[in-house]
Amino acid sequence: MSSKQKSSYKPRILAFVCNWTGFSAEDLARSGKFNGISSIKVVRVTCSGSVSPALILDAFNAGNDGVIICGCESSKCHYITGNVKAEERVEKTMKILKFLGIPPERVKLERISPSEKDKFIDIFNEFSNNLISLGPLKSLN
What we know:
By secondary structure, this protein is an alpha/beta fold. It is built from five helices and four strands.
């Protein structure tokens, strides 16, 4: 991908955000505070631990360039161990992606508190910039 193409490329990101931490991400996405770097769609889920490898692969199949999962901070999970389950599922997904020849860096798990709006912005902008360096994801079909 040429530098001109990279500068105009806006990765499509699907964000699965925990119901208990996702308010900030949704608000930021709706208000356009992600600097227009990416096309970010936010899906609120009951718990980050409910995001299965199949759901992440479906997100890529639907044309997204990256998937980010935002869950509760380590000791503050509303469902006690949901964020641990999310970590296990993301690790499993990364192994599947490697097997499929897809860079595992296209999936990111973050633990964050709902009050950290600036951190949300930094996380999404950094993830978007990483995806820009990887370039568009080739179709899984």
